Amino acid sequence: MKPALIRSLAVIAVGVTLGLLLSPLSGCSSKQSALYQTFESLISGERGLPESAQKELARFDAVFDVYLKKKQERALQRDLFIEVYKHTRRNYVHTVNDAVLIDAAIKGMSEDWDKESEGDEGHTKAESAVEAALDAMLASLDPHSGYLTPKEAEAMYANTRGQFGGLGISVTMRDQGVYVIAPIADTPAERAGIKPGDVITHLNGKSLSGWTLMKAVNEMRGDPGTEISLTIKRKAQQPFAVSIIRDVIEIETVKARLEGNIGYLQVTKFNEKVEDGVEAAIEELYKKSQGRMTGLILDLRNNPGGLLDQSVALSDAFLDKGRIVSIKGRDGRGERNYEAGLGDIAKGLPMVVLINGGSASASEIVSSALQEHGRAVVMGRRSFGKGSVQTLLPLSNDGSLRLTTQLYYAPSGKTIQANGVAPDIALVIKEPEGEKKKDEEDKPRREADYENALHDDTATAKTESKVKVEAESCKPVITTVAEEERKDYDLGCALSFLRMGSQASFLATVKTL
């Protein structure tokens, strides 16, 4: 693995979850290095655990011993569990409760053992049981921490490089199945009509009830050209099936075009291609406009996040000075402040940033930084509210621990975690005439809606948008996706705002609520 990639992965502001359906990336194992072997030896076994934690670990051992009699296999899997357990106790963003962790692990392992299977994908029974224990233990912390098998860890690295195979959707888990945060632009999922807020309840007719997110992800992976059927629950509609052909996903993370003399810049995901891609795109926009560009729209809608360093770079690209984001761990541990340097590649052009409920993590860093420094007007709908940082910690079996280690804070010091970013101008979409009123289950999910979502003790009350506009009162931009004509009212509002030259002039032409 290239040193630059290792550095960029050291701290990751992962989207809402894994970028879905990844293909393996070979050659990234660090297990063989002498440094890693030394590190691994220091964390192996129970060395350094306080007596109270050792007692809780003994409870896990007692259950594990009932299930597993082969001592060699038992030792290997027990060492993996202890390794993850120690990492979690040492590095999690909040102090953990040992009894709660072990209770969750025992429950997960017991439920897996009761299935009376030999494990999935060639796993031994011990591997399957310990993976279930780790999944359950980490899921008890927050929606974004988790254990990645060696195959899944390689897939995560592939995702940050901007190329993977599958469907092209960013997801998380909810009670009834896999919840779609957003389809990635120009992928099989988007072309098939998958929408933010859809819930995938079945795969090829198999219910996802009780599945882990990674198990569902693995089921959806497959060779390019193969077909999979997804059962979708969408708002008040009856569940329906959608067939999608898997493909190799080449994420075009940065897209740009001119809308008259206004530049349109869309960032779909924060992988390591963003910084260079945005610089090249802005340069090309100026060239095509012959230097007559009068405004810029940065579209972060349905962008689930990605690499922290790329969100900082994108914010810095449009700021001359000031705090971009602060990151703090447990008890202020590892606090880091990121500041902007001189240089605005948009040369002070008026800017609008578009966000919605699918804008998360790195997208929220950018939108909050540009908003609070007055560099851009933020329009759309409140963002997802994922203000936590996940660190990928390598494990001795070539897997990884994805652990929430820090929270990040906007320039004002406000946390985005579970709050999200409120747009300066909220764009409200009317419900179609005659559509049933959505019940609680059908409402769009955000970070705060999850039972185990993290909440920061210093969080202030949610900031609300001061101006609300009926989006349909703007002239829409017409786009075509998979031969389907779509009306983009949000983009129409952003264009109108920049063309009018002031908020007062814009509001005089639209319907406010």
In words, what does this structure look like?
The protein is an alpha+beta fold and 513 residues long. The protein has three domains: 3-153, no CATH class; 164-249, PDZ domain (Pdz3 Domain); 252-386 and 412-507, Alpha-Beta Complex (2-enoyl-CoA Hydratase, Chain A, domain 1), CATH 3.90.226. Helix content is 32%, strand content 23%. The chain contains 14 helices and 24 strands. It has helices spanning 3-10, 34-43, 51-67, 71-91, 98-113, 125-139, 150-160, 188-191, 213-220, 274-288, 308-318, 362-372, 489-500, 503-507; strands at 12-13, 146-148, 163-166, 169-174, 177-183, 199-203, 206-207, 227-233, 240-245, 247-250, 254-259, 262-267, 295-299, 306-307, 323-329, 336-339, 351-355, 377-380, 388-394, 400-409, 425-428, 467-470, 477-481, 484-488. The strands form six sheets. A seven-stranded mixed beta sheet has the order 11-12-13-17-18-21-22, sandwiched between helices. Strands 4, 5, 6, 7, 8 and 9 form a six-stranded antiparallel beta sheet that branches. Strands 2, 15, 16, 19 and 20 form a five-stranded antiparallel beta sheet that branches. Strand 19 (388-394) and strand 20 (400-409) form a beta hairpin. Helix 3 (51-67) runs parallel beside helix 5, helix 5 crosses helix 6 (125-139) and helix 11 packs parallel to helix 12 (362-372). The chain is globular. Residues 1-44 and 436-442 have low confidence and may be disordered.
